[in-house]
Amino acid sequence: MNLLTIFLGFLKIGALAFGGAYAAIPIVEKEVVQKGWITYESFGDLLAIDELTPGPIIINSATFIGMNMLGVLGGIVASLGSIVPGCIISTILILLYRKYKKLTILDNIVQALKCMAVMMIFSTLINMIWRSIFGSALSLATIDWLILAMAVISFIVIRKWKPNPIFVMLACGAIYLIVFGFIFPA
Amino acid sequence: MENKDSILKKSLSLFGNAFITSMTANSGYAIVSVLKNKYTQKHKWVSEEEMNDIVALCQSSPGPIAVSSNLMIGFQIAGPIGAFASVLGCIIPPIIMMIIVSFFYNYIITNRYVRIFMQGMQAGVIAMLLDVVIGLFMNIAKKREVFLFALMIIAFLYLRLFDLSIVYLLIFMIVAALVKTLIMTIQAKKGGKA
What we know:
heterodimer; A: about 190 residues; mainly alpha; 7 helices; B: about 190 residues; 3 domains; about 0% strand
């Protein structure tokens, strides 16, 4: 593992992450977790940390993963890699815009890419539910009922009152800690 | 852009604003709306119409909206130097912040209670992602286009059934969009003649 590998890895992630902030998550899952650069557990933690800190998810993820692998320099190199493709394409687009003003063909491409993005996030969500709630097995014994209950209630709260998701997550963490850290310590 | 401010002065301002918005705003779109206000109302460096076009254009670029919007706004205001200053300004805060956070994470994650807390937070993450997926889905579904539903089904099946690179799916989506554009253009021409 060296800096060039990390740079190229995040260059690829940066080139594929079309369709808004959350689109980066499934690509990080596919490119980083499946390559074994970080564990699935750290990936789950990373998503929580992404929400707790400002800044784009892709840069946060790149810094976090790069730093976990090769220290501070790894974090910086990974972040720079993740934004290079976007910077190149943005530069081309703004130059085209200055020349031609309207680019109607892009609308159709953006729409198609959004269809892909939503399904990618959905797919990652299925993986998360499978691991965090079902414990990666189709059996009643491995279901984490508290996570399941908190996820359902959090979802209702988020849909109904639209609070900042940070508070919902912290509340879930606190409840889980009270129950499994203090009341029923394993 | 008949404004007399020099490129350097504009670039410094771009860097500063990018830096500050990147630290405070929590989404790419929030950043754009703050910057839009600054550059169209206060400085009058770009027109409101240009800003709206840039916001639309950002979506065609991969990676964070914050970076692509800052780059395009910076370029429009002060050329390549402005673009560079804006991008630098918007990436420094998250990188520094995550370096600090990652440092603490590695330090405290071995603690049993921290581990349990983080595990509990996954419930919130799942709920939030579900909310995001529904929001994005409704946005596409309200267009009521069979074409878009077909693309979503293809994308879902591809992702769940095959363990292949996303690159092929991305290429397929772009080709599908180009074919659709072609068909629309031909139909528009036919309609025009009739």
